Amino acid sequence: SEEVGVKKPNVLVFEKALDKAGVLAQKSIMIGDTFEADILGAQRAGMQHIFYNYRNDKIPQEYRAIFHLSELKQHL
After folding, report:
1. How would DSSP label each residue in 18-70?
2. Going by C-beta distance under 8 Å and a sequence separation of 6 or more, which residues neighbour residue 21?
3. Can you tell me the distance from the alpha carbon of 55 to that of 22, in angstroms, rounded to the nearest whole number?
4. pLDDT, tens digit (0-9, with 9 covering 90-100), for 5-58
5. pLDDT band at 1 (very low <50, low <70, confident <90, very high)
6. Which residues of 7-24 are buried (b: 16+ CB within 10 A; e: fewer)?
7. Element (H or E) spanning 15, and its range?
8. Is the peptide bond before 60 cis (omega within 30 degrees of 0)?
9. Which of 62, 15, 17 is nearest to 35 (CA)?
């Protein structure tokens, strides 16, 4: 966020991270625990995404979510 001067979910944050990692958005997965900032931001950037919903937040059903980190292996 500091490098681009904006905060998530601004797509510039994701684009900068992808650029620094040298990877394509389509080949990357954002695993985040904040729905709006992490998941919606990643979606706007063209990334796959998995919501770590340890707080059991209400989210639309079409989004992938896990409730325990041990579930992550099933999605990779």
Report:
1. HHHHT--GGG-EEEES-IIIIIIHHHHTT-EEEEE-TT-----TTS-EESSGG
2. 28
3. 32
4. 999 999 999 999 999 999 999 999 999 999 999 999 999 999 999 999 999 999
5. confident
6. ebbbbbbbeebbeeeeee
7. helix 11-21
8. no
9. 62
